[in-house]
Structure formats: structure tokens, C-alpha cells
Amino acid sequence: LVEATYGNRLHPKEDVQARLGDIVRRTVQRGGSVLMPAFAVGRAQALLLVLQRLKREGDIPPSLPIFLDSPMAIAATELTLRHRRLLRVSARELAQLTDGVRFVETGVQSQRLSRNRMPAVIISASGMATGGRVLHHLQAMAPDERHHIVFPGFQVAGTRGARLVAVRADVSHLEGFSGHADADELMQWLRGFERAPRHCFVVHGDPQATDALRFRIGNELSWRASVPPHATAVEV
Prior knowledge:
By secondary structure, the protein is an alpha/beta fold. It has nine helices and nine strands.
């Protein structure tokens, strides 16, 4: 089985760290805050790492408050630091991962944060704005043109994140933060197989993406490939 989230396109060729730094700088200068709906496990910690790098390099104000508003993201961050030896990140950077980061533990604290008027960066779940604490932050920030909402990763069609365009706040989609391989990267991985599988099932993508990747696999690798309908059962 191979996923096809980006099966019909490539990641944009951009420096996402530099772009995020530019977004934060411009937003803070006009008195606004940056809200990042983020997956609690993996993505939230990656964003903290990038934000700390931006602070160290002077690309964003060193004193800018960063709030991590997700109980699961807080727990995942603590696990990340507990098992830091398993990561390909320098010990120095991991030691500074949560410097100046304020953990928002309770729902009451989260509601209070949504009424904050000082510029800040807020990382909250869920990553596609389908539920969770990020919803009341969106309600408070989306009508205000000073703020900027950044979606750092893939947004499934039909989710609130994918539809969130008709708001007064700026909205950006930084696909470069996505953890999914793009079409060329998926094909490169498949070419590494020592022998072709008997059949390749293309899953986890919208119809256009899965069909495009299925076609490339058949055309470029000469493998048998198909997109199985939902709930298909296969005996192996």
C-alpha cells in the first residue's frame, strides 16, 4: 500500500522557515497575532523548533510570547524532550525547545488567551480546525484583519481548514511543513524496491491524487496498481 496525499503534485520550492518568519514579523508589526492550527503530535513540536530558530537568528522578536494550547501537544512535547536522544536534532536546540513557551493547560486558560490583545503566536489543535480549542481562537481572531492564520500542512477537502478563506484575517497555507511525501518523492521511494509487488494499492488521498499516482506507477514502473474502493477487503 502506498499513500497518495500529494500524489498529483509537488511541494512548493520555498523556504518555509523564512516565509513563516516574514508572516510573524509583518503580523506583529501591525499589532496582530499568528494562530497556527497544528497536529498535536509531531507538527506542534516541529513548529516550536522553527520558531526558536527564528528567534535565535533575530528574524522574529526574541520576547514574542509563544503559547502551546493543546493538552495532547503539551504531553507530546514533554515526551519529545524525555526521549531527545532518539531525535536527529542537536541537544542544544532541544534544550531550548520550550524556552519562553507558555503551556496552556486548562480550558479556562485557553478562553482567557483568546481574549488576549497583545501580539503572540498561538499553536493550537486541531490541525485542520475540525474541533478542539483552536475553534474559539478562530472565532476571536478571524474577523480581525490584524491577525494571521497559518495552516502548516495538508488540509483535507471539506474540512474547516480547507474552506477557511472568507475571513478578514490573513490566511496562509504553508504546505512545505507537511510530513507527506510529494508525488516525485513517492515515486523515488517505490523505485527503491528490489522487486515489484504483486499488486500496489494506492490509498489515503483525494480521487484526483490517488488516480494520478496510480497512473504514474503503472506507466513508469509497469506495476499493477489500483485505487481500492472504500472498505475493500483483500486476501493475502
